[in-house]
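Narrative of activities, Objective 1.

The group set out to show that a structural description can be obtained from nothing but a protein's sequence at a throughput compatible with the screening campaign. Below is one input-output pair from the validation batch, recorded exactly as produced.
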Amino acid sequence: MNCGCDRKNGTAAGCGHDGGEPARDGDDALNHDKKNNGERGKENSAENGGDNKGKYAGKRGGGRGGESGGGMLLIISGPSGVGKTTITHEVVKQLGAVFSVSMTTRPITGKDREGVDYCFVDRAEFEAERDAGNLLEWAEVFGHYYGTPRAAVETAMDAGKVVILEIDVEGAVLVKEAMPEAFALFVKPPSEEELLQRLRRRAREDEATIQRRFGQARREIARADECGAYNAFVVNDDLAHAIEEAVGLIRDELNAKSKK
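Output recorded for this entry:
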């Protein structure tokens, strides 16, 4: 699937691609510029001292709001350490799903691929897209904007693709407001105790950071339970089973949509 930013007439829009779009769920905001493997972690940076000044559902852009031809917008969320990135990549592998590509104002680095990892724009261009309602959601984190272009998602869906947004709960709520037909899946740990142990087993951070992530995870799970945005929950007590369940739920939803 071709990717890139269409800047004709001032438009900037990413499209989905066949793997590796960094996640948008806060998993690793401290290290998000070091990864291009499905774990960007830009949104929920409050746990890491970031300034998340606002999120916005792009409902004013004249979006179609109905079903797109044959495809589906898939939201996958879950706290740090729950295994959602592994599950997400299996969804890509088994269902031929693609990741959305976010628009951002942060500076491009030598490791970034324009139109593949992000679409890089300046603040004026981003704000024009935002104000026109052309973003499904957006946030300002560490002084930079990040957002999901609506048109690119709809184009991929019209091509029959399952388009994945791996985002946090608040982003999911906003995207569901903008596109109610999206299918939202939340991955849970089998217990809080197991989640804490998984965070420790990663051996990537000190105990204080682990405790911050754990506290944020507990709040995120509680918010997911009560927000009403999620169509299904998968408990990752066994990874192979969780993958099978997630893929099965998505396949069922695709089959149901195809019969409408």
